[in-house]
Amino acid sequence: xxxxxxxxxxxxxxxxxxxxxxxxxxxxxxxxxxxxxxxxxxxxxxxxxxxxxxxxxxxxxxxxxxxxxxxxxxxxxxxxxxxxxxxxxxxxxxxxxxxxxxxxxxxxxxxxxxxxxxxxxxxxxxxxxxxxxxxxxxxxxxxxxxxxxxxxxxxxxxxxxxxxxxxxxxxxxxxxxxxxxxxxxxxxxxxxxxxxxxxxxxxxxxxxxxxxxxxxxxxxxxxxxxxxxxxxxxxxxxxxxxxxxxxxxxxxxxxxxxxxxxxxxxxxxxxxxxxxxxxxxxxxxxxxxxxxxxxxxxxxxxxxxxxxxxxxxxxxxxxxxxxxxxxxxxxxxxxxxxxxxxxxxxxxxxxxxxxxxxxxxxxxxxxxxxxxxxxxxxxxxxxxxxxxxxxxxxxxxxxxxxxxxxxxxxxxxxx
Length: 415
Prior knowledge:
- By secondary structure, the chain is of the alpha/beta class.
- The protein has helices at residues 10-21, 33-40, 51-60, 70-74, 97-109, 126-137, 158-163, 175-184, 197-228, 232-240, 261-274, 280-303, 331-341, 369-373, 386-389, 393-399; strands at residues 2-6, 25-29, 64-67, 79-82, 114-118, 144-148, 168-171, 192-195, 312-316, 345-349, 364-365, 378-381, 404-407.
- The strands form 3 sheets. A 6-stranded parallel sheet has the order 3-2-1-4-5-6, sandwiched between helices. The chain has a 5-stranded parallel sheet with strand order 11-10-9-12-13.
- Helix 5 runs parallel beside helix 6 and helix 12 crosses helix 13 (331-341).
């Protein structure tokens, strides 16, 4: 099929790349001309393992193109995906301005029947709103159906998750549109769930909120384990052997971050509040996640008996998780800001994120982990990159003059 995709952020770019890889002809649209020019060269503006290779291969095969022209992107499209951002507003609600603009752009530029698939994470009822906007502004006589198809991608594993996902959710009110969207993904051989649009929208939010609750739960159990002398990794392993619970997302540490869980949990609690529904479990998870970073910083402060000023502290890891360059809601941000307020001197190292001048210009950046820990007073493991997991920690301790290590990700349990 011919596919148009609005938005070349994380979801749009990965979706476009994989759809072209399985044989569809994809045109990605973005208003950012600099980003489009970069993509035309086969270079990804985001770090995602395996993505550059797929972009280059399908770009050269003329199955994947990039443009700033809506007319060009939609001209031959059988299906148009909306994959624009829905950032969190000040009140916690999702900002739908990009979604609404995308709907208007479709209505004004499409001159043939088409299916519109909302891939962005949106509050329940947004697909209905997209359909209303399109029908109010489109050329009379066209058949344009709107389908919900939420994404379930993990940053750093997005290519694998697209090819080998647990499920594909398709929310549609029209069976012809539903079946056509399903056929788009047929070669992936992933189980497909059919439902109505509102349920599909809710599945995405409910899934992310549940995983956020699971992370916050094990972190609070970890705090109790520390107080009682128990091993949280052993506890998580024992819990995970129960098939009703499972081991995934039971890794105690500094909590969740990134572009999804923080935004989606806030949006879900906002929706609950607007509808007079008590969602205290998710609210507690949000609070616990925030507290976890402060608890970690307090451990560092207590180690120095409150005298952190002038101490040299190494931060290993800046991205919110391994295999991504995403700093959105990263624990490192909170940790660094609090330590700088206390007068600490920060040296940071991340295998991918090399400079975050917007965070604070007082931070110094190392080119290697060895350089980062040289003669410091404390080492903080903030992101569980494989480079840190596999590191020679005896050597690192020696370089640092035996500095205290604060393992924020519990990767050194058996070292």
